[in-house]
Write a structure and sequence with these properties.
Layout: E1 2-7, E2 9-10, H1 16-28, E3 35-37, H2 49-55, H3 62-74, E4 77-86, H4 89-93, E5 101-108, E6 114-119, H5 130-133, E7 142-144, E8 149-154, H6 161-169, E9 174-178, H7 186-200, E10 203-207, E11 210-213, E12 216-217, E13 223-225, E14 231-234, E15 240-245, H8 249-257
Parallel strand pairs: 1-3, 2-11, 3-4, 8-9, 9-10
Antiparallel strand pairs: 1-15, 4-5, 5-6, 7-8, 10-13, 11-12, 13-14
Helix pairs in contact: 1-3
Length: 273
């Protein structure tokens, strides 16, 4: 199976619409890949808090339209990163302090159909920024691809192992993390990606951004880790397309040869049938 991680640079001099079109063109170039992954909030920048409200869009808004077409044109499964989603009415009120905004990821099939959405559960900011501007998601999301079951997570989620264990209990074999991770904590990014792979005996495909978001330099260094914790591929600091081949069957082999998940004593889920 081949994956392309598009480590997009966010430049404040580039309009959001121009970036949508540029990124769509990059997606269309990944025709040899099975799965294409974009970073978190690449339309606005993950730290551009003042843009969340002005650039927020409905689920089936401009980004949806452009990315659905790009996925169909390339014939790929596309994790289109996340958008600042605006929800109105009763559902918007449920966002509470988020004021009807969510950090929402979209996944498209090779035919361009929207097959899954994930609202980020753990919001970053310590009572400011995203933590107060956006509502929290409440549902774990997995997507069944022909070769593997993918579990979805976003950026700050990476620090919460119980979320990933829940995804594994739901059948995930490949964990996709879309992020806008800051450069000053890059060592944590790499460490946590490898930790989630080792403890869950799953692939981790973690795609971050490059550039500077509202004065915050981004880490880059998107990474792909195998179920044994070995790094299969890693990007640099700038904008880059990271392409990697991986074998989903290695998840089952690893879990059979080193069956640590069977020895869990706390929070054990019912066997899947």
């Amino acid at each position: 199976m081949r994956a392309s991680l598009l480590q997009i640079a966010v430049d404040e001099a580039e309009s959001v619409d121009a970036r949508r079109q540029r990124v769509a063109s990059l997606v269309r170039q990944q025709t040899g890949s099975d799965l294409v992954i974009l970073p978190e909030l690449w339309t606005t920048g993950a730290f551009a808090y003042e843009s969340f409200d002005t650039e927020a869009e409905p689920l089936e808004g401009p980004t949806y339209e452009v990315m659905a077409k790009a996925a169909s044109d390339a014939g790929v499964w596309l994790h289109a990163g996340s958008i600042p989603e605006r929800v109105t009415g009763t559902a918007g009120a449920a966002a509470g302090a988020g004021g009807g905004l969510y950090n929402t990821s979209l996944v498209f099939s090779p035919s361009g159909d929207l097959v899954a959405t994930y609202r980020k559960i753990h919001r970053f900011g310590f009572d400011k920024g995203e933590a107060v501007l956006m509502g929290a998601g409440s549902e774990l999301v997995t997507v069944r691809l022909p070769e593997t079951t993918v579990g979805l997570a976003t950026c700050y989620d990476l620090r919460f192992p119980e979320l990933f264990r829940g995804l594994v209990d739901a059948g995930a074999e490949t964990l996709v993390v879309s992020a806008g991770w800051p450069e000053r904590r890059r060592s944590h990014w790499t460490l946590l990606a490898r930790a989630r792979a080792v403890e869950d005996q799953a692939y981790v495909l973690a795609c971050g951004t490059a550039g500077v978001h509202a004065g915050v330099p981004q880490a880059g260094y998107s990474i792909v880790v195998d179920p044994w914790g070995e790094v299969l591929a890693e990007a640099g600091a700038g904008e880059e397309v990271l392409v990697v081949d991986f074998d989903p069957a290695r998840v089952g082999v690893t879990r059979e040869q080193f069956p640590a998940l069977k020895d869990r004593l706390l929070g054990v889920a019912a066997p899947r049938r």
